[in-house]
Amino acid sequence: LRQQGLNEIANSDDLKNVNDIRVKLLGKKGPITNVLRGMRDLSAEERPKVGKFANEVRDELQQALEDKKSSLEQALMNAKLQSESIDVTLPGTPVAQGQPHVIQQIIDQLVDLFIGMGYEVAVGDEVEQEEYNFEKLNLPKDHPARDMQDTFYITPSVLMRTQTSPMQARMMETHDFSKGPLKMISPGKVYRRDTDDATHSHQFHQVEGLVVGEHVTMADLKGTLEVVAQNLFGDQLKVRLRPSYFPFTEPSVEADVTCFNCLGKGCAICKGNGWIEVLGAGMVHPNVLKMSGVDPDVYGGFAFGLGPDRFAMIKYGVEDIRDFYQNDMRFLTQFDQKG
Ligand code: FA5
């Protein structure tokens, strides 16, 4: 029995088989247990001899089973380690990484530029009081110029801001002019009931700029806008200032950049005129200064509101503003800053 058991153990090659052998040889119904159970029928002389021998056989088989079990477990572990080993020299799987939206990239570039020129950045709320969006900007109720910015109203006195200009009034009200001039930009989203087309979206972005202090002139405005244009477009594209009208600036101008598509010849994108309008600007109207508690006899300033969506179109030759808002990854990943 002993030799047979040892042979079986030696020949078994998996853990389940080893367990079966253990049950068969050493279990309650196994031959060793039988022998031990039959001891009471033996004579007092035989009992210790048989008992001793049976115990020896049992211990020996038990040891052989243990040894076999641990050697099989070890082999299993080795095989597993072998199959799961990692080749650290293989190239890794690239991790998908997000990036700022192309319009945000333009805004970030502008913010960097203006911070470098000593401006502070003030972010306002997209839901604004009518008073700040219109009244404090010299646009009383029933003023015809309100039609220039068709508005989404939330209540009769609360609206989705149509421009970032309300931040002009808010910043002038709180600025301490005894400490120096106010120089700020305010980037953000604005909303208008415009009909969407290639160059208009009902939701778009603006970056407002405002400088108020002593001796601020129109030449400062022009110089600042030239720095912006050169920073974003280089000097290949031309910029022109055109007289315009805004209720909150006097005089007012609009700036156009050469159409990127036809380079001034006239095409469908620029509606035939060769230029794309990118910003409105002017010298802050004395009424606006007064309404925000600033003395127009002492202080003056310039303001501008530019459209980063249009800037992005011109910079990258995007023919339809609506492409920016459709979240098509094939379109958006073209502007990956990591290249
Ligand atoms: C304004 O909103 C004025 N608040 C700008 C301003 C600020 C003037 C400070 C004077 C002083 P306007 O409506 O022209 O002006 O818009 C400014 C810029 O926003 C435009 O030049 C254009 O680049 C962009 N813009 C206007 N409407 C849209 C639209 N529907 N879709 C995309 N961009 C637009």
UniProtKB/TrEMBL annotation:
Highest taxon of source: Bacteria
Residues where Mg(2+) binds: E250
Catalytic EC class: ligase
GO annotations of cellular component type: cytoplasm
UniProt cofactor(s): Mg(2+)
Cofactor, how bound (note): Binds 2 magnesium ions per tetramer.
Coiled coil region boundaries: 54-82
PANTHER family per record: PHENYLALANINE--TRNA LIGASE, MITOCHONDRIAL, PHENYLALANYL-TRNA SYNTHETASE
Protein name per UniProt: Phenylalanine--tRNA ligase alpha subunit
Species of origin: Limosilactobacillus allomucosae
